[in-house]
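HUMAN: Would you supply a protein with fold tokens?

ASSISTANT:
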Amino acid sequence: MEIAGTIKEAFGGDSTGKGIGGHGIYSKKNLTISDSAAITSAKGGDSTDGIGGSGIRSDAELIISQSDPSQSATSQGATIGTAKGGDGKASGGYGIRSDGDLKIEGGTIGSLTTDDNSKQIPDPTTGALGGNAAEGENGGHGIYSKGQLFISGSADIINAKGGDGKTPGGDGIRSDKEFNISGGKIEQATGGNSTDGTGGYGIHSGSMLTISDSANITNATGGSGWSGGHGIFWHCHEKSFPVPSEPQRAAKAKLPAAMASTASASSPSPTAPSSRTLPAATPPAPMAPAAAASSATVSSPSRVLPSEPRRAATPTTAPAAAASAATAAAMTLSSPSTAPTSRTLPAAAARGAAAASLARH
């Protein structure tokens, strides 16, 4: 929905029960008030036992656009004389309300009047005005965004005031989320008064509040009450931490690798064979066990358990001697032997017996 023309009066109807008063201007989708729009008065209806209606309301995004100097050098953007929330028993309505993001990029909200000293001041009967709450929770907010709120460009908010309430008073300008004032002017933002609670805040952000050097805020005043409201107030739910520089990030990125390297150098590798583990080999010859044990003891790493030196000390000499003895025994068994005497005597005896037999004959 876009409003580009002139609207002199837009009034919501009253609620005689516990319902909500009607809204002056209402859109269930995005609402844009263009730079050529002129709204004299938009007022929400009152509610006898419920909640007052809003002067201007969008259930989605609401934009009050900035004038285009290339098309009209004299245009100051949209003008909204008065946007007032209706009064209610439970809660007052809002002057300007957006349930999505609210962007006030240009235009004028409110008008000026002259005081007793002929000085121009914000007219308290104009602008974005929250409705009053007779007995209920809180007064309505002058300008309210349920999402983010941005005020920029040539926006001129002459007057924004929260309604009075029994508990908290309404806020002059409020955002439930991020509130960014990057330009424009806020001439007067005032919180509503409270009879039994806290006065409303002039400017209130439910999250982060940013006010740039090009923004101009003339007056932000909290309402009176059992506890006075703040002029400018914001919540910060998140703690911020310093962002590390690039060298610090690089050092932190390398730290796990360095720690891993140190751990590898200072502790035995779980996969490295210990001094008691022999490498796999072809099944040994009869002499291999002693030789292998001697060789493994000499070439194995020196990193051993506390009891290992005692175990390793014994096989350093005995296995070598055993190996030498085994080698000699094997050589004796495997080398050709000289015929024993018992194998030659039977032949000589046979020849002697043959000679004796011939002599007898």
